[in-house]
Amino acid sequence: MKNKHILFGICGSFCNHQAILKQLKKLCMDNDVQVIVSENVYTCDTRFFKHDEFLKTLETISTHKVWHTIIEAEAIGPSNQQDIMVIAPMSATVAAKLANGIYDHPITLAAKAMLRNGKNIVFGIATNDGLGISGVNIMKLLSFKQFFAIPFRQDAPFQKERSVVAKWELLEESLDQALINKQLQPLLLGSKQ
């Protein structure tokens, strides 16, 4: 993937943020990447990152100011500058909002703007409830024309039997396939154990 304008949405599932940074660095080597984050990512300190340090890292890697407001998300539609969007990690809450047309959040409104412009969205799910009630929303997204998933697996089937996490190393390949309206296969990868 080269010379693309990518909108990169980052939600909770804070334990996956370090892995996401690695993928963001790869994308930024040959593409222009604008990051947009959820309110929680923008404001919450966690055991993984202090929010201000994480945001500074994102801005250093992408060379753009991080977007984080509804106002910034709303402007994405009229400007129509991005070729594709990735949401990684995507939390179960954001999956539920998108699956049910709820756009009260920077990431979901950004996604709505991309859909308005006929652009595809690749999501990397990370949730402890992916094989529970949240699975309904994940499958619903996969049934929509413009949504594609980074292949995912059970990350700890004997400790957290409902938990699923995308294989982050497949992010760029998933984007390449989504740009030609294809889902990277296989989508279901089994488990790590």
Largest sheet: 8 strands, mixed
Averaging pLDDT over every residue, what do you get? 95
Gross geometry: globular
What low-confidence regions span 5 or more consecutive residues with pLDDT below 50? none
User: H/E element string?
Assistant: EHEHHHHEHHEHEEEHE
DSSP strand (E) fraction?
A: 15-25%
First-residue to last-residue Cα separation:
31 Å
Please work out how many helical segments DSSP would assign: 9
Instruction: Supply Rg.
Output: 15 Å
Helix content: 25-40%
Total strand count, please? Answer: 8
Helix-strand category: alpha/beta
Pfam families: Flavoprotein
InterPro entries: Flavin_trans-like (IPR036551), Flavoprotein (IPR003382)
Protein name: Dipicolinate synthase subunit B
Organism: Amedibacillus dolichus
Describe what is shown at a glance.
With 193 residues, the protein is an alpha/beta fold. It has helices at 17-30, 39-43, 51-62, 70-74, 76-79, 92-99, 106-116, 135-143, 171-178; strands at 5-10, 32-37, 84-90, 121-127, 147-149, 152-154, 164-166, 188-191. Strands 1, 2, 3, 4, 5, 6, 7 and 8 form an 8-stranded mixed β-sheet that branches.
What are its keywords?
single chain, 193 residues, alpha/beta, eight-stranded mixed sheet, 8 strands, 20% strand
